[in-house]
Write a structure and sequence with these properties.
By secondary structure, the protein is α/β, with parallel strands linked by helices. It folds into 2 domains: 2-311, ABC transporter type 1, transmembrane domain (ABC transporter transmembrane region fold); 330-568, P-loop containing nucleotide triphosphate hydrolases (Rossmann fold, 3-Layer(aba) Sandwich). Helix content is 65%, strand content 9%. Helix 16 (499-515) links the parallel strand 7 and strand 8 (517-521). Bound molecules: adenosine-5'-triphosphate. The site of adenosine-5'-triphosphate has 11 residues, from helix 10. Pfam families: ABC_membrane, ABC_tran. It comes from Gordonia soli NBRC 108243. Residues 330-565 form the ABC transporter domain. This is Putative ABC transporter permease/ATP-binding protein.
């Protein structure tokens, strides 16, 4: 547990050591204060006034030391809590930006947000509120056991054996509760995800007349949560009872053994009474330790989740990053890739896009067009073959070099909860307002500005919720135009293609193609025809054909068949 803390604090461990030292000193002072009660009570029972005053002074001194050390360690505990949270936020933030983009699935982002908000808070508050009783109770109990050995070695031995028994009971009860807690945690995450899904899929549920009925996946997981919660409750009761019984048993054993010593004249009654008081003070903190076990276990689990993220391998950075050798060129050479082992999405894909040209990627739904984009932007590393961007293997470039060459207009556009202007400026932070306006005009953002009550300075809401899908896409196109990267990856999302949008998308692609290499997942006939080359993917992870529109029609293959089918239909898309 403490090792876990030290791991997440990294080089900033000094704070932890300082806190531990003060908390331990407090525990020792507390233990000594308890011990001093024995000679004090003895002196009172012996009617030895001067000894009683002497021990009382010692007691006062130790109480004063307890107060001071408690105060200092509390402050340090609070500081450690804040420091831990800040360190965790920094370390998580620094590490997350080095992870492969493919790591950020929807499930993962849910988990990360839970870890970053709740997890860090919980771990931080553990040092502020729970370390002190654990450390202080452990040390004071040890001091008391040593003291008991000193006052009466026989009772001391019974207390030491009792401490071992209590420790074993705490471990057993802890493991009984721990498995139930872990199951409960897993179910809580599932409930969290299902509730989000339930909120998100409201439009679909209502469209299909299911608004009033229950949503089975959520109902199921809530049912599981109820059952897991009940199991956890029973196990917790069993664990806590085991601890309670163990504490009482140890206390009774000390009492019984002490009574037997007294009855058989083996111990002075005055010492026995004082020792009984000490035994009561000893079993209390040890029992409390077991109660704190559950909180500490939860903190340990959170630490494990945090360290798991921190230990996730970053995207491999080249030892000697290579500079771009052919700006604007893209080569995909015998690429093999699958998200899951044994299920290849790309088996052998090759094509080449010359600088300044436009390549249209077409193929059946699920043939791997989006996946190819992800490989070009190095969301994932290929399993075989090479992806070269700017003439250099993407694995031999540092992230900034690779990203500097690419503009991406993907289907799932994310807008930040900021103004429209700032959302476009992300494309090139040093762009002037005039440059932003020019890019926005081409992309058709001007129409959005007119509609919004505060024009350019209107916040677009979290994730761009104040804009339509088509409008969000236009903002993302404006970003790409503004960035002016040598290579543009453009996904012509079908959902966003209303006639007004279509005109802007076409104009933007033309403008982008004037200055950059454009690779487009094409859904529009005009885009495909305008491309310098068309790469037709098959549904087996390969390339069916590569050529211009005229060449492909002339060869009469899969593309020609699609072409004839789609032109006969009202709309056209190369997806099935
Ligand atoms: N993150 C992922 N994890 C696992 N499998 C995935 C993931 N993303 C895509 N796939 C799978 O990879 C295959 C190719 O998907 P991809 O999205 O690249 O196809 P696509 O050609 O772009 O499809 P569409 O035209 O429908 O958008 C599909 O079978 C899909 O289920």
């Amino acid at each position: 547990m403490i090792r876990g803390f030290l791991t997440i604090l990294g080089s900033q461990r000094r704070q932890m050591f300082g806190f531990l030292l003060w908390a331990t000193t407090f525990g020792v002072a507390q233990g000594l204060a308890m011990l001093v009660l024995v000679p004090f009570v003895q002196a009172l029972l012996d009617l030895d006034g001067s000894a009683a005053v002497r021990w009382l002074l010692w007691l006062l001194l130790l109480v004063a030391i307890c107060c001071i050390t408690f105060y200092v360690q509390s402050i340090r505990g609070m500081r450690l809590a804040l420091f831990t949270m800040r360190t965790l936020h920094h370390r998580l933030g620094e590490h997350l930006v080095t992870l492969p983009l493919g790591w950020f699935t929807r499930r993962r982002t849910g988990e990360v947000s839970q870890i970053a908000v709740k997890g860090t808070m919980f771990v931080g508050s553990t040092s502020a509120h729970f370390f002190t009783p654990v450390i202080a109770n452990t040390t004071s109990s040890l001091v008391v056991v040593v003291g008991l050995l000193f006052f009466d070695w026989r009772i001391g031995l019974v207390a030491a054996a009792g401490a071992v028994l209590l420790y074993v009971a705490a471990i057993v009860s802890s493991s009984v509760i721990a498995s139930a807690e872990e199951a409960n945690h897993r179910v809580s995450i599932a409930v969290n995800n299902r509730v989000l899904e339930f909120a998100r899929c409201q439009p679909v549920l209502r469209a299909f007349g299911r608004a009033g009925t229950s949503y089975e996946p959520l109902a199921e997981v809530l049912d599981t949560q109820y059952r897991t919660g009940r199991r956890m409750m029973w196990r917790s009761v069993a664990g806590i009872s085991l601890n309670g019984v163990a504490v009482q048993a140890v206390f009774t054993a000390i009492l019984a053994f002490g009574a037997w010593l007294a009855v058989t004249d083996r111990i002075e009654p005055a010492l026995l009474i004082a020792v009984f008081g000490l035994a009561a003070r000893f079993t209390g903190p040890v029992g409390e330790l077991a109660d704190l076990g559950s909180t500490l276990r939860m903190a340990r689990d959170e630490i494990k989740r945090i360290t798991d993220v921190l230990e996730t391998e970053s995207i491999a950075q080249p030892a000697e990053p290579q500079p771009v050798s052919m700006p604007g060129s893209v080569e995909v050479e015998h690429v093999r890739f699958g998200y899951v082992d044994g299920e290849p999405v790309a088996r052998d894909i090759s094509f080449r896009a010359e600088p300044g040209t436009m390549t249209a990627l077409v193929g059946p739904s699920g043939s791997g067009k989006t996946t190819l984009f992800r490989l070009l932007a190095r969301f994932y590393d290929v399993d075989g073959g090479v992806v070269r961007v700017g003439g250099v293997d993407v694995r031999d470039q540092d992230t900034a070099t690779l990203m500097g060459q690419l503009s991406q207009v993907f289907q799932d556009v994310y807008l930040f909860d900021d103004t429209l202007r700032e959302n476009i400026r992300i494309g090139r932070p040093d762009a002037t307002d005039e440059e932003i306006a020019a890019a926005a005009e081409t992309a058709g953002v001007g129409r959005i500005v007119d509609r919004l009550h505060n024009g350019w300075d209107t916040p677009v809401g979290e994730g761009g919720s104040a804009l339509s899908g088509g409008e969000r896409q236009r903002v993302s196109i404006a970003r790409a135009l503004l960035k002016g990267a040598p290579i543009v990856l453009f996904d012509e999302a079908t959902s966003a293609l209303d006639p007004e949008n279509e005109a802007h998308v076409a104009a933007s692609i033309r403008e982008l193609a004037d200055n950059s290499t454009v690779i487009v997942i094409a859904h529009k006939l005009s885009t495909v025809v305008a491309a310098d080359q068309i790469v037709v993917l098959d549904d087996e992870g390969g390339v069916d054909d590569v050529g211009t529109h005229a060449e492909l029609i002339g060869r009469g293959g899969q593309y020609a068949r699609f072409w004839h089918e789609r032109t006969a239909a009202a709309g056209w898309a190369m997806a099935h």
